[in-house]
């Protein structure tokens, strides 16, 4: 189940568990999470967007350009302000095949096999084998 803090947004993920989990140490995730890193669970876009009609009135969206020239759609709860999902759009406007659910919004998320990414700006120690930038598939 995916929920914001006030539970105005609540819906089921398309899969019972994410494809992968990333702990991102980039400066944007640090700012967005007001912490040393952000946690994101990766899911396919198909079946996750558009949001169910019942919650659409509660969802806002903010966009920003990324360093790679893509656009990031940042979906949030209009009531409590919690970020829910990020989806990347390629320079031609088409959707990337996956999106990220913010880790704190996903019930029973485990960080056991999470990857540490963008560690060149990490503020905390990271495990060996972490990615200084994006993983290869990004």
UniProtKB/TrEMBL annotation:
The keyword Ion transport does not apply. GO terms for molecular function: carbon-sulfur lyase activity; metal ion binding. Residues 1-119 form the CENP-V/GFA domain. Keywords: Lyase, Metal-binding, Zinc. InterPro entries: CENP-V/GFA (IPR006913), Mss4-like_sf (IPR011057). Pfam families: GFA. Belongs to the Gfa family. This is CENP-V/GFA domain-containing protein. It comes from Hypocrea virens (strain Gv29-8 / FGSC 10586).
């Amino acid at each position: 189940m995916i929920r914001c803090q006030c539970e105005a947004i609540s819906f089921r993920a398309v899969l019972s568990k994410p494809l992968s989990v990333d702990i991102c140490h980039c400066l944007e995730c640090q700012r967005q999470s007001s912490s040393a890193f952000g946690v994101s669970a990766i899911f396919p876009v198909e079946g996750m967007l558009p949001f169910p009609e019942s919650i659409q009135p509660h969802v806002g969206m903010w966009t920003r350009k990324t360093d790679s020239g893509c656009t990031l759609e940042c979906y949030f709860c209009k009531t409590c302000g919690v970020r829910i999902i990020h989806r990347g759009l390629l320079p031609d406007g088409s959707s990337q095949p996956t999106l990220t659910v913010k880790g704190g919004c996903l019930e029973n998320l485990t960080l056991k096999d999470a990857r540490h990414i963008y560690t060149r700006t990490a503020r905390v120690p990271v495990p060996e084998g972490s990615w200084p930038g994006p993983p290869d598939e990004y």
